[in-house]
Amino acid sequence: MFAGLIEEGRLNKGWTRDELADRVGVGVVTIRQVAKGSSRVAIGTYFEAAALVGVSLFTNDLDTLNREQTIQRDRLTLLPKRVHRQPQEPIDDDF
């Protein structure tokens, strides 16, 4: 679910995977793995990507998690599968 929320956030912002990778400071292959929910990616990479795309990180209410997972799946089916963007000025994401 977490990976899906990150992917949804990326698409909502209109960022390509390359753009998110640049902001997180990793390669695009790593961001592809994040989108798949790979366990090979460091948890810090997931947290950084989540923070950048505006995903809330913590809750322990199972009803909320199940509801959010259903909503997130429905939203992802409506969003485009890819984002194509023209290069623009670099954004300073240095915290």
TrEMBL record:
Which Pfam family name is an example for this entry? HTH_3
Residue span(s) of domain HTH cro/C1-type: 5-60
Task: Name the InterPro entries for this protein.
Answer: Cro/C1-type_HTH (IPR001387), Lambda_DNA-bd_dom_sf (IPR010982)
Record protein name field: Helix-turn-helix transcriptional regulator
